[in-house]
Amino acid sequence: MAEMNDLTIARKFLDFMVDYYALMRRHLVDANEYRMHSHGFSTLYALRAYRNSPVTMTQFANEMGITKQQLTKLVNDLEEKEYVVRSHNKENRRQVYISITDRGIQHLEKMLGGIVHEILTTLSDFPEDDKQKIAECSEILSDLMRRDAERCLERGVTPSPAPLGD
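-> structure tokens emitted (166 positions)
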């Protein structure tokens, strides 16, 4: 296979992302209260990583690539539904932590189940060899993204991208 330059690779990856995004929008339009590409979904999904250790609002806003004001609005909405909870640092009351609740986890799992169901419906139209290619490519891409996140952490750069748009 001929070597590709970075610009060609970037364009091919962008094509994939746009095609994938369009596919998901076609199949997941009204599957859940929070759409897969919403800030609400992104917030709950990302908070899952902090299940056992709350994260500060400031740190989480930075990781999500949004302002503290945007996160506060999101958290207000999610807290009203009892999906997240805020707590204050006992030594420094200005430091606010956020964590996902059991109800939030249950809601997220329900949303993920709906998404998986829609993906299964989409996959049912693919021949088996194409399904295998999708599985292999997904695993490879996930591994590459994890390694990139690790490199970012080593350099002191927040690896999380800005969340998907509303």
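Residues 161-166 have pLDDT under 50 and may be disordered.
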